[in-house]
Specification:
The protein folds into two domains: 45 residues, no CATH class; 151 residues, no CATH class. It contains five helices and four strands; from the N terminus they run αααββαββα. Strands 1-2 form a two-stranded antiparallel ribbon.
Length: 202
């Protein structure tokens, strides 16, 4: 027993002495891991696939960045992962006063972002804009009286008839209502996404 304890204690002492002298961040294994993360796997960098590489306002980035985190988690981390999403010990969360499975809630948010917000919503906007262009009025500039030519005049819209005016008004109002509805939904979904963040680990 004594002969077996001596090497073990000696190795332990050497390890602890090494840890005291050599800083953690400068150990070979840790340095190699940090180098790989800096070069290849930048886990702290969120690549929003649907945003341009040019400048974007922070309010524009917040929504896609948040749901990109969820998308990456669903696609790359939690399948199968190490968390028991279903079964006797499945995690649950309250949604609208009803207890739901956390993974079901994540998948619903995933579906809303990738299907509704990123596919169906833009397609419907394109359809409305195409329809609006077919009934858009002519726009002409009427100069102000007694004003120099270099000063812009008043912009006037001219419709062919009341039917065109009514159709244009209806379509533009529908587009505005759709935008308002999606903005309201985005706020709600962001709150729901924040509620499931504690379970986004593997």
């Amino acid at each position: 027993m004594i002969e077996n304890d001596i090497p073990e204690n000696l190795v332990t002492r050497i390890k602890y002495k090494y840890w005291e002298i050599w800083p953690y961040d400068l150990r070979p294994g840790v340095m190699w891991y940090n180098f790989k993360c800096w070069v290849w796997h930048r886990y702290g960098t969120i690549r929003c696939r649907r945003l341009p590489h040019t400048w974007s306002d922070r309010r524009t980035i917040l929504l896609p960045a948040s749901f990109q985190i969820l998308t990456d988690f669903i696609d790359k981390e939690c399948s199968p992962g190490h968390v028991e999403w279903y079964g006797e010990y499945a995690h649950q969360i309250e949604v609208g006063g009803v207890m739901e499975n956390v993974m079901d809630e994540m998948k619903e948010l995933y579906r809303w972002w990738n299907t509704v917000h990123e596919k169906e919503y833009p397609e419907r906007c394109d359809e409305l804009w195409e329809a609006i262009e077919t009934c858009s009025p002519k726009i002409r500039c009427v100069p102000y009286k007694d004003m120099p030519d270099y000063i812009a005049g008043k912009m006037m819209t001219e419709y062919e008839d009341d039917e065109q005016r009514g159709k244009h008004k209806t379509l533009t109002e529908e587009l505005r209502n759709l935008d308002r509805y999606m903005d309201k939904q985005a706020e709600e979904m962001l709150k729901r996404l924040a509620a499931v963040r504690l379970w986004m680990w593997t």
